[in-house]
Amino acid sequence: DAGITQSPRHKVTETGTPVTLRCHQTENHRYMYWYRQDPGHGLRLIHYSYGVKDTDKGEVSDGYSVSRSKTEDFLLTLESATSSQTSVYFCAISEVGSSGNTIYFGEGSWLTVV
Amino acid sequence: AQTVTQSQPEMSVQEAETVTLSCTYDTSESDYYLFWYKQPPSRQMILVIRQEAYKQQNATENRFSVNFQKAAKSFSLKISDSQLGDAAMYFCASRNRDDKIIFGKGTRLHILP
């Protein structure tokens, strides 16, 4: 299994509070992604990173920011959490080349905004 | 824009039978990758099969195979000899040269004993 750790795995927070989810990898992969999974919507890309300090927006980036100061860590921040951000968040990592472009996923972080 | 469409929210198949899950995608690029992922109730994401767009030969992995129609931008997954353990949500995904990876909404597959 790919070395991906998401933290926290479960969190309940109040509307309006900031929340940061962390994705940590031990694979030294260049690419890291944050997705949210909601019923009827599948996995939607929030932000992704193609290197240290190199990030780009995905399909549903409003209300979210990210940072990547080290290869191994990709942080997702909800500046002011809203109930619509209640979701399961998945981190993924990837590399290109002969490894075949496989995407590895973390186990998910369950976030509830009340 | 890069899009992936799975038009079947749910499907059912009898155990030991064959089922095909549909996926269409849209991209302006000629070089890209396509994937099928399986998500069982545990929520773990498991790679089922992968296809490079420049390869004309359809990818196969044991009981899983794809029908890749590049001109039609279609990438269907065929599961042969369906087993109870195949019950899961299946996601189709595409990866372009900008390395953005986009998923479809998924198809929930039920296996009937």
Quick structural overview:
Chain A is mainly beta.
List the helices and strands and how they pair.
The complex is a heterodimer of chains A (114) and B (113).
Chain A: E1 4-7, E2 10-13, E3 19-25, E4 31-38, E5 42-51, E6 54-57, E7 64-70, E8 73-78, E9 87-94, E10 103-105, E11 109-113
Parallel strand pairs in A: 2-11
Antiparallel strand pairs in A: 1-3, 3-8, 4-5, 4-9, 5-6, 7-8, 9-10, 9-11
Chain B: E1 3-5, E2 10-14, E3 19-21, E4 24-26, E5 33-39, E6 46-52, E7 60-61, E8 64-69, E9 74-79, E10 88-95, E11 101-103, E12 107-112
Parallel strand pairs in B: 2-12
Antiparallel strand pairs in B: 1-4, 3-9, 5-6, 5-10, 7-8, 8-9, 10-11, 10-12
Number of strands of chain B: 12
Provide the succession of SSEs of chain A. EEEEEEEEEEE
User: Can you tell me the overall shape of chain A?
Assistant: globular
The averaged pLDDT of chain A comes out at 93
Main sheet makeup of chain B = 6 strands, mixed
Q: Give helix % range of chain A.
A: under 10%
Please provide the ordered H/E string of secondary-structure elements of chain B: EEEEEEEEEEEE
Task: Supply the helix-strand structural class of chain A.
Answer: mainly beta
User: Rg of chain A, please?
Assistant: 13 Å
- Tell me what portion of residues of chain B adopts beta-strand conformation: over 45%
Number of helices of chain A: 0
> Unreliable segments of chain A (pLDDT under 50, ≥5 consecutive)?
none
What amount of the residues of chain A lies in strands? over 45%
Distance between the first and last residues' Cα of chain A: 34 Å
Global geometry of chain B: globular
How far apart are the first and last residues' alpha carbons of chain B, in Å? 41 Å
